[in-house]
Task: structure prediction
Amino acid sequence: MHEKKIAAATLFCKAHEIKVGNHIPWEIFGLHMNGETILTSLIVTVLIISFCLLTIKNPKYIPGKIQNFIEYIYEALEDISNNQIGKKDSEKWVPYISTLCIFIFVSNWIGILIPLKLIPVQGVELGSPTNDINTTTALALLTSASYFYAGLKKKGWRYYYGYFSPNPAIFPIKILEDFTKPLSLNFRLFGNILADELVVSVFCLLAPILIPLPVTALALFAGSIQALIFSTLSAAYISEAIENHKID
Result:
């Protein structure tokens, strides 16, 4: 019996040494970061900035096909903000919602179109930035900070009156909502993108010619939908912070 307890204690201690996934350890200003995530995030950022600079460098009064395409994307992203927040307050939030949607969209697609998991760097598998829960957590917390800022900017400290209206008994529910909103954004995006990349990578290894094509198409569609859902929910939360606390 005593030997079983010792064996169980030893196993418990070893379990604490197990690490989930391999990462490239980077330390910046004393902060420990996943190097592969920073690397792929930089790649996505450079791609987005380069594309924007090349396509809108010389805008024309009569736009060509590329400029028409860019304007169409902007109008679509602007509609998300207008529909959720309203035209009166959405103007200042269009850049944030648009940047959020484009970054997530490109991040999702780059990990699917280019099977980064099949490209090892320093013995570590690469993946899209949204494949790392640290990235999705940062994006979710950024949205939380944004809707708190929106509410405080609109009503000042009276924003917090909404936590007790129409009945003080709803205060615990309001607090719980502030925790569940970023959690739902975080795990929805992370779980879907991780699953999509794993499925595409597995099919590329097992049958690298025909079978991955429909799977990849489905994963690209799912990645697009996830970017749209994340940005739309972010706009909806900002709208809720502004509209639901109009207490004069």
DSSP finds eight helices and four strands in the chain. Helices lie at 2-15, 35-55, 65-85, 87-90, 94-113, 133-155, 171-206, 212-243. The chain has one domain: 32-243.
